[in-house]
User: Fold this.
Amino acid sequence: MIEVKNLTFSYTNKPFITDMNFDVKKGEIFGFLGPSGAGKSTLQKILLGMLPGYQGLATVGGTECRKHGDSFYQMIGVDFEYSTMYEKLTARENLEFFSSLYEGKKRPINELLERVGLENDADKKVSDYSKGMKSRLNFVKALIHDPELLFLDEPTSGLDPTNNRMMKDMILEEKKRGKTILLTTHNMQDATELCDRVAFIVGGQIYALDSPHNLIMSKGAAKLTYTWDENGERSGSCRLDCVADDQRLSKLISENRLLSIHSSEPTLNDIFIEITGRTLV
Amino acid sequence: MKAVRLSFMQMIKFMAADMMLLAAGVSPVLMGAAIRFGIPCIEGLLMEFTGLPRVISPYYGLIDILFAAITPAMFCFVAAMVMLEEHDDHIDRYLFVTKLGKKGYYISRVILPAMLAFAITCVILPICGLTEMAFIKVLFLAISGTLQGVIIAMLVVNLSSNKLEGMALTKLASLLMFGAAGPFFLETPYSYMLFFMPSYWTGMMVTCNNSLYVIPTVMVSAVRILILARRGRY
Assistant:
């Protein structure tokens, strides 16, 4: 669905994106993870055909992004991080207008509003909406023309836990419907839960690209931590794949002296810091 | 084309919902009526008061030039305000990635209002104008006014970051229209100092009664529009 080869781009004389390579398969949820200024938005703009001055290859649905025609945006739905609604219009009026710009079959507005819990606020002006409501409305706006490819920028930002869950379920439903999804997020938990593959981007370069599970497993094994009583509570730990080699643990188990035992895996955030040396801020 | 039409209609609805923009949209008609009926009245009173045979009438051509520029200026001001509000609300960036696209957006926000203003000017200028006007003169004055309207809209959108700044800048940008006064009040070669203003050449067109001056009007306007398009914020 998306192919990027030797992509280089700069706003000034200094390269901002350098020799980037990746591809996104149809039906995949692909995550871009990186701190602010890493090049995620620039990459998104290139793929959306908004920055044609790049070098290398960047194709979306077989179309070179810098040479796209009118039909290019028919297959793309975009959910920007910020609200992109007419504040003086109601939610329904906004969706009706944006829907009318596209050709082909559209998804029913009422159904989409109901799905994100906005059916009772459909005729309320967007200026009266909360941040979370605007975020949900923005998301369904990207779905209105039933595009094949979705660009989602921080789709769960500003949502309460219930709506966050609902949004993630909707994203997974879209994947089931065969949509390809490009997700840009700072939220490692969302990325772990939603993405088939993620790319760590820092300084305009991809530092790692794999499934969240593989990244976690390849860079940091799960750890086992245990405590026992020996003149007060004491603790020890070992790698999960070396449990049999820990003689103290074997002895404590055989003597039934363990007070607690639990395993812990590194998070994607830990892996990000380990690989890039940066935090996601 | 459907998306461009719908986007243009959306702008009209937007304008209708905003009292200030609505007033700006209908102001050319009110101004036309004021010029058509008010100025000859004032001229009569001034002639009576001063005892002179002519007071304002030598400048009727200048008033016609300014009136020809008013409709496009107002329509393009409305378009610029809508564009600034859409920029503030990030809607323009979203529209760029819809079927409308960036090109379609600018057609619906600049080209179509300018074309509408051109058509309206062609209709109301012969009705409300103060001088005898052949069709070709009406056409050239409408072209000149429309190009100035486009320049004003592009200046305002490129240099303002919000509606308030946009309104202030529109007043400043509207001074472009007063280049037309140059040939009426300044002797050549001094008046040539205003060569960079498209309206100056329109003034020359009227004072010299020479339609060929439409060529420098279009050329100077085209250069300005190209510069603004290249240095545009987007």
